[in-house]
Amino acid sequence: MAPMMQQAFRRKPVEVMAAETGIDGHGGGQLARTIGLFPLTMIGVGATIGTGIFFILSEAVPVAGPAVVWSFVIAGAVAGLTALCYAELASAVPVSGSSYSYAYATLGEVVAMGVAACLLLEYGVSGAAVAVGWSQYLNQLLGNLFGFEIPELLSQSPEGGGLINLPAVVLIALCALLLIRGASESATVNAVMVVLKLAVLVMFVVLGITGWNSDNLADFAPYGVTGVTGAAGIIFFAYVGLDAVSTAGEEVKNPRRTMPIAIVLALLIVTSVYVAVALVAVAAQPQAGFEGQEAGLAAILENVVGASWPGTVLAAGAIVSIFSVTLVVIYGQTRILFAIGRDGMLPSFFQQVNARTRTPVNNTILVAVVVGLLAGFLPINFLAEMTSIGTLVAFLVVSIGVIVLRRTAPDLPRGFRVPGYPVTPILSVLGCLWIINNLRPITIAVFGIWVAVVLVWYFTYGIRHSRLRAGDVPGDVS
Amino acid sequence: MTVLVGLSRDERAPAAVHLGVLLARSLDDDLLVCTVVPPPWPPGMGRVDAEYQDYLDRSAQEAIERARELVPPDRPAAFVVARARSTPVGLLDVAQEHGARLLVLGSSTAGVLGRVAFGSVADRLLHTSPLPLVLGPRGFRCRRDATVRRVTVAYGATDGAGELVVAVAGMAARVGAALRVASFAVRPHTPLTAGVGSRAEDAVASEWTADVERAQCAVLKEVERLPRQPSGLEAVVGHGTDWAGAIEDIGWDDGELLAVGSSTAGPIERVFIGSRSSRIVRHSPVPVVVVPRGAAQALAERAENDVG
């Protein structure tokens, strides 16, 4: 058993990681530090807004009531703490990547595989959830513009009374096609999307506030603190992506200063927008109206204004911005699997690159098929909760990683250090645990089974095929 | 055989003539310089069209005279003025009539000095020419006795790419030049909002590079089996965040040519430049040969059976 444990906790040497990504010294060295505070903040805002706010209220309000506003604040605070921890770990491991790479370099192979299981939820499952939300807004837009809606049979999951959510499946297929052709979102596209999303949400707040009715807020927290934290668990989904700021560390000017400010700024912007939207929504519509509401923001706006055009505009904005989010999320998923494949823990199928398109085609198709199945057949609330728990656990591991690394490698140069150590990472861990604890038991159980499946895969396949074992690269088993 | 130079009647002409001389000397072929003028219209009342026609004929003759001065006396060269409604058609007719093996053109003045830029004639021919097309960078010049010393072939490790390499190897061997097989690993920027770091694409690019290096080795083995060998063999991969960087990365010499193939989207007997080839060509600092797929097949077969 001892040698097996030793293998399971072997760490991937940082030099090997650096050598793998740098190609014969061609551009493998330092990336130019070109990103300043403002673009970095925009990366954070762009990666975060749009994943959840457009459809999460109809899941969260029935759980918390109007006090859902506090759920946003709690989820935002926890997301901010973890993002700071993420930034330290990212700066300590001088190769950029996802939390999978950081965990592999600092905590060992088996932890990295656990994190990978979480990331499959954070990316793959959130891609499915986002695509389902997209299909709701697409139907809203079609209904408003042409008086035609895709029949329930083809736009609802089996649980929602349909057969398959076809628009969501088509969206994912389109994204996969673009990725196979080698499309990638540029900084300009991100900037345009940020403006679009903010404009749409600001429009919601400005128009929606005319429908303010304090009576709707009378019973502010019908389900008490439990309701608020339970909703925070669902809402955490809306903060997925804030960690993108941390992974850009290598290209950030003066990261020690820029990084925390950008994270906090992005968090403030995102949380303010979310709270404003949530407050206006719960004030404009009685809480009973949220349950099962589709394309929620557009529907509320139409009821408030009494005309269909604001809903149409909002739906159009949501469709464009959610599309870009889906594209980026699927992209991230394929590249994470690619990295795991290169480390030998997945079959080489995942790391084959098509000679013509220069993209990992097999990998992309497989991801699209799986995400498409999830989006086509599962309801959004389940997908959102699975994403939240996956992200929370990944963040939890990262926060623990910061503490572990401070003890095991105190002298490692770090581009960025968490302010208020050790309080910040401990608070981050506690915050994650608190929110996880309030998720539905079924979510926690499914998550446990999923991680177990991935670990079984690791102990039957990964541990034997890992390139660290094969001796391709010297392992660090100290 | 003949090397045909399409001569424009402006400041671009010397580049094409220099390139034609370089190729004719390297291949030991005759040089044919051709300029195309529009045919006369039916005579009009004012006789203005006749004056215009006179002007065209005069300018064509002047262009020919200037070109004649650029051709060294030791090279056999002929000069013609063709009449055709369309310059590309006129050039192809002349090429067929004289059995030309290559058609040489200069770059558009809209391009950057030292880079290849397609003008309207080149653009048309890049999608229809039945014979290999050579495009010189804008402002191309070379010494009077220069010859081709190295041919770099752009290799994409896709179907039919091996054939192009063998064909170009045969040509390089014929002119006594070295062969370089070049592939270009262009790494796009990773979208930072994806949260997978700024180097996610590096991993994909390095995997692609490993694959393409294996393919390059295999195709070089094929070349080594040819009866006549180029004077040197080499394989390189250029890295960059865009095509310009990747192409610059491998370094270029005087007396070098770049050969690219035709897209499989086009008909087999004609040049049909693909999206990637077109990017490569536009960033090339050296003259570019674009080979139709049919010609690549024929040349590859000839190289394999060449015994003398």
UniProtKB/TrEMBL annotation, chain A:
<dbReference type="InterPro" id="IPR002293">
    <property type="entry name" value="AA/rel_permease1"/>
</dbReference>
<feature type="transmembrane region" description="Helical">
    <location>
        <begin position="418"/>
        <end position="436"/>
    </location>
</feature>
<feature type="transmembrane region" description="Helical">
    <location>
        <begin position="192"/>
        <end position="214"/>
    </location>
</feature>
<feature type="transmembrane region" description="Helical">
    <location>
        <begin position="261"/>
        <end position="284"/>
    </location>
</feature>
<dbReference type="Pfam" id="PF13520">
    <property type="entry name" value="AA_permease_2"/>
</dbReference>
<keyword id="KW-0812">Transmembrane</keyword>
<feature type="transmembrane region" description="Helical">
    <location>
        <begin position="313"/>
        <end position="340"/>
    </location>
</feature>
<feature type="transmembrane region" description="Helical">
    <location>
        <begin position="442"/>
        <end position="461"/>
    </location>
</feature>
<keyword id="KW-1133">Transmembrane helix</keyword>
<protein>
    <submittedName>
        <fullName>Amino acid permease</fullName>
    </submittedName>
</protein>
<feature type="transmembrane region" description="Helical">
    <location>
        <begin position="361"/>
        <end position="380"/>
    </location>
</feature>
<keyword id="KW-0472">Membrane</keyword>
<feature type="transmembrane region" description="Helical">
    <location>
        <begin position="162"/>
        <end position="180"/>
    </location>
</feature>
<feature type="transmembrane region" description="Helical">
    <location>
        <begin position="220"/>
        <end position="240"/>
    </location>
</feature>
<feature type="transmembrane region" description="Helical">
    <location>
        <begin position="386"/>
        <end position="406"/>
    </location>
</feature>
<feature type="transmembrane region" description="Helical">
    <location>
        <begin position="110"/>
        <end position="134"/>
    </location>
</feature>
<feature type="transmembrane region" description="Helical">
    <location>
        <begin position="69"/>
        <end position="89"/>
    </location>
</feature>
<feature type="transmembrane region" description="Helical">
    <location>
        <begin position="37"/>
        <end position="57"/>
    </location>
</feature>
From TrEMBL, chain B:
<dbReference type="InterPro" id="IPR014729">
    <property type="entry name" value="Rossmann-like_a/b/a_fold"/>
</dbReference>
<dbReference type="InterPro" id="IPR006016">
    <property type="entry name" value="UspA"/>
</dbReference>
<feature type="domain" description="UspA">
    <location>
        <begin position="2"/>
        <end position="134"/>
    </location>
</feature>
<dbReference type="Pfam" id="PF00582">
    <property type="entry name" value="Usp"/>
</dbReference>
<protein>
    <submittedName>
        <fullName>Universal stress protein</fullName>
    </submittedName>
</protein>
<comment type="similarity">
    <text>Belongs to the universal stress protein A family.</text>
</comment>
<feature type="domain" description="UspA">
    <location>
        <begin position="148"/>
        <end position="292"/>
    </location>
</feature>
